[in-house]
Amino acid sequence: MRADPILLPTKDGLYCPAGRFHIDPLRPVERALITHGHSDHARFGHRHVMASRQTLDIMRLRMGPDFAGATQEAMGEMRIGDVTVGFHPAGHVLGSSQIAVTQGGRRIVVSGDYTRQPNPTCLPFQPVPCDVFVTEATFGLPVFRFPDPATQIAKLMASMAEFPERPHLIGAYALGKAQHVIALLRAAGHDAPIAIHGALAGLCDYYVSQGVDLGVLVPATADEVAAQLVVAPPSAFASPWVQRFRDPVLAFASGWMAVRARARQRGVELPLIISDHVDWPMLTGTLTELAPAEVWVTHGTEEGVIRWCELAQIPARPLRLVGYEDEAEE
After folding, report:
1. Which range is the signal sequence, renumbered to this chain (predicted)?
2. What distance in Å separates the CA atoms of residue 263 and residue 34, rounded to the nearest whole number?
């Protein structure tokens, strides 16, 4: 399949020659356009970074004020070199964007990570008509069919009612998933204080500053945490920190909890299938809705999506960009 003159896969990631920029580059470059703040998309050391205001704020929180030589907030459609660039909501985490690059009437949309399920903590995915759609494939197999997140929160609350004497520890990635889970709990009527690991405090504070209601949050620092519900990054479960809790119910919020072997490997008693990525029906439904002339697949199980595209008579190819890996905690 021919190379596209607008975006080219290179060793540094997707590159736009006419605009002289990379999208989510894998290593420091002159000019980077960033879809969202997760570390496999947003990296330290670029000379110039353009992203949504919230993504820029999140990068500063996670990497420090000097994460890039210069920054520019993406606002509306912009001309960069000989192309037009637009940032559109992706529904993944706060500030997450799809990046549309248009030249000569031809448009490529790079989705970054995205979901079609409603997420109370960020703007919903906006379908953008395009000639080429670059989709993630984190859960790009038919086995992945995620339930309504409300059913998973109901399962968690039922466990808390059944075992009121046991603290419930939820593993949730620090950016996006933790705030998503907390917001879902609040929407389900859980008004009691929720304890959070210190690693989550800065990002939770930022979400609150952006109008996301997370209710009363308390630090999970005391030897005896009063809250029955504790949210922490999954890495904390492998540290001495977890030993302060007596007989906890270990839960983990992730799309990977749809795979029972993953839950057993992690010692998870209460798997919660909550993801901020598209599952198989959402992914294929998005491709059907957009009906692009071509699909590029990256960031996961590329073969299954490409086979589906073949059956749907949509030209597709894997990008196989080395360095794009799924967040281990997702």
Report:
1. none
2. 32
Q: Which of 121, 117, 116, 81 is nearest to 101 (CA)?
A: 81
Whether the Cβ atoms of residue 33 and residue 50 lie closer than 8 Å to each other: yes
DSSP string, 110-176: E--S---S--TTSPPP-----SEEEEEETT-STT--PPPHHHHHHHHHHHHHH-TTS-EEEE--TTT
Tell me what pLDDT residue 26 has. Answer: 93
Question: CA 152, 283, 76, 58 torsion: positive or negative?
Answer: positive
Of the candidates 330, 149, 326, the one whose C-alpha atom is nearest the C-alpha of residue 255 is: 330
Band (pLDDT 50/70/90 cuts) for residue 91 is very high
CATH 3.60.15.10-classified regions of the chain:
8-143+277-318
Which single residue is written with the structure tokens 């599952």? Answer: 279
**Domain 149-272: which topology?**
Rossmann fold (3.40.50)
Q: How many helices (H) and strands (E) would you count in the chain?
A: 7, 19
Residues 6+ apart with CB under 8 A from 218: 193, 194, 195, 196, 225, 226, 227
What are the φ/ψ torsions at residue 272 (nearest 5 degrees)?
Answer: -120, 115
> What share of the chain in percent tops pLDDT 90?
85
> Looking at the chain, which residues constitute the CATH 3.40.50 domain(s)?
149-272
| Phi (first) and psi of residue 156, to 5 degrees | -65, -45
For residues 174 and 200, the answer to whether their CB atoms sit within 8 Å is yes
Give the helix/strand (H/E) hosting 183.
helix 177-187
- What kind and span of H or E run contains 10? strand 8-10
Counting Cα atoms < 13 Å in the Cβ hemisphere of 40 gives 17
SS3 108: strand
Fold of domain 8-143+277-318: Metallo-beta-lactamase; Chain A (3.60.15)
Q: How far apart are CA 95 and CA 260, in angstroms?
A: 32
